[in-house]
UniProtKB/TrEMBL annotation:
Belongs to the sodium:solute symporter (SSF) (TC 2.A.21) family. One of its GO terms (biological process) is sodium ion transport. It is a multi-pass membrane protein. This is Sodium/proline symporter. It comes from hydrothermal vent metagenome. Keywords: Cell membrane, Ion transport, Membrane, Sodium, Sodium transport, Symport, Transmembrane, Transmembrane helix, Transport. It is found in: Cell membrane. Gene3D superfamilies: Sodium/glucose cotransporter. GO terms for molecular function: symporter activity.
Amino acid sequence: MNPDPLLNTGGLIFMSVYLFSLIGIGLAGRLARKENTLADFYLAGRGMGVFVLFLTLYATQYSGNTMIGFAGKAYRGGYQSLVMVIFMSSVIGGYLIYAPKLFRLAQKHGFITTGDFIQHRFKNNALTIIIVILSIIALGNYILTNLKAIGYIVVAATGGVVGFAQGIIILSLIMVIYETLGGMRSVAWTDVIQGVLLLIGVVLIFIVIQVEYGGLAASAEIIKNEKSDLLKFPNWFERRLWISTIGLAFFGISVYPHAIQRIYAAKDENTLKRSMQIMVFMPLVTTMFMMTVGWVGLAQFPDLDSRGSEQITILMLQDIGLRVPAMGIMIILFLSAAVAAIMSTVDSALLAISSMVTKDLYGHFKPNKKQSDLIKFGKIFSWIIMALAVLLAIELPQTIWRLMEIKLELLCQISPSIFLGIHYKNLQSKSVLAGVIVGTFIALLIIFTPGLPAKPWGIHAGIWGLIANVSVLGMYQFRFQKN
C-alpha cells in the first residue's frame, strides 16, 4: 500500500476536530438527562422521533463491515457478491415480522434489553441467561470487526504515522468516553452526524468511481479478460451459499440486540414504521455502492491476497488521490464517513452489551440494587469490555467478513425465541431452550472442528445450527402439546 497519507494537514485537523467534538456531544447527552434511570440512560427516555431513529438505525446497521468489509467481499467474490444487496434488504423484512408487536410489549412492560422480553415471555432464567450470553459474544465479535476496520483507516489516513494499534486505542477511548457520559442519548445524537456523513461519503465515492474508472461496464471488460471465473454463472453449491447468506442476514442481523433497543426507544409505533420504510431503500444506495468499489478495485488492483483485499477501499482512495489531486475534499469526507460508520456501530454494540450485563446478569443476581448503582456498574463494564476488544482486534488474524459471519451464526440461534415467541402463544420455554442449546452446539461444532468445511454443502454453520434448532424445538413442542 502507498505509504503517503490519505489526509493532508488540513484533513487531519478536520478529522481530529470532528472526533473530539463527539466527546462534547457525550457531555451534552449527559446534561440532557432527565432522570438517572436505566430507561433514560439505555433508551434515551423512549422519545426518539423519525429523523433520529432512522439515522441511528442506518448508522448502526451500516458500519465498518459496509465501508471496508463489503468492498473486500466483493473483491474476492466478484459479481456473485451481488447477493449482499439482497442480504441487507432481507434484514428489514425480519424487523417487520416482529418489531411493531415487540414495541407495543416494550411500552407496556418497560423492556430495556432483549433479555427483558425473553424473561417476560418465557419466564425461564436459564433460557434468558443463554440468550444474553450468546448476544454478548456476538456483539463482542461485532466490535472486533469494526475496530479492525478503523485500524486500517487510521494507518492509511496518516500514512502510518499513527499505527494500527494506536489508531484503535485512540478512537476506542473517544467512543467509550462519550458512550459512558450520555448513554443512548449521546449515541443517537452522534449517530445523526455519523449517518449523514456515511450517506454522503458512500454516494461521493460511487460517483467518482463512475467518472474516473468508467464504472461497472469498463471494469466488467477487464475482469472478463483477467478474472473470468469471477463472472461465471453460479453453480448449485454457490446458489445454496447465496440462499444461506440471505438466511444469515434475515435471522441474524434482524435480531441485533442494539437494533432491538432502538425499537424500544421509538417515540411511538408510527415513528418506528416510518423509519423502517425509509430503511428499505438504503441497501441500494449503500451496500450496492460499496460493492461497486470492490468490483472496480478488482479490475484495477488484481491478485491481492485476503488481507490486501480487506483494504481495497483504502487502495482506491489512494489511487483517486494520485489521479485527481483536487479530490482531497472527497477523500476527507469519505474517511470521515467510514470512521463515523464504524464508531456508530461500536458505541451501539458497547451500549447493548453494557445494558445486558447490567440488567440481565448483574441485576438478576442483585435485584435490590438501585438503578443509579446499576448504571454505574454498566459504565465500568463498558471500559472493561472495550479494553478486551481492543486487545483482540489488534491480535486476531481473521478477515472482517469471516468475523462477521461467526457473529451472525450465533445470533441466528436467538431468532426462534423472538420470531416465534412474539406470535405463538403456546410456545414452551423448554422447547426454545432445547433448540437454542442444540443449534448453538451444531454451529460451533462446524465452525471450530479442524478439517470440517466452514460451509458444508454451501450452507453456513449458523444455518445448519438453526435447522437443528427449529427441528428440536418442533419435536419438543409436539411432545408437550400431545401430552
